[in-house]
Amino acid sequence: MIRKTFLFLVSLTLASGWCFSQAFIKTTDLFQRHGAGDLNIIQDQAIDSLISHYIIANKKIRTFEGNQGMQGFRIQIFLSPARNARVEADKVRMDFIDKFPEDKYPDLKLYPQTQEPAWYMLRVGDYRNKIECYKDLILIQKEFPNSYHVPTVINFPDQKK
Model-level pTM? Predict the structure, then answer.
């Protein structure tokens, strides 16, 4: 009986320590104001909990390159598991760079990727939703008719635009 009580208390202590180690973000901390005036937010504390979980979960999202990112879309112009896929991918990549130069199309950044066991793919752009993606997709499909949009983790958009 003493052994069971001891194990219960140890597990309770560990569980409570794990719960307190989670970061908690209040809504009022997100809306900090610089200047005059007060901000009073009256809401259920469960909303603060949901926002905190959302922020923590999104900090864990990483792009294929390892950067922190967000859910979005890219245009896939090449995908192949063939033996000579690397050579084909390089040819398509050079063809894309010739037809869509970076100085004329700065938003069409090319992302070469590999996936196990031997898939080679070329993806273009960082789009937050499908609507942003369609304008460039129509332009790219004129030169690469088999291209299509794919959901993926993208880099954060540039806030200076």
Answer: 0.66
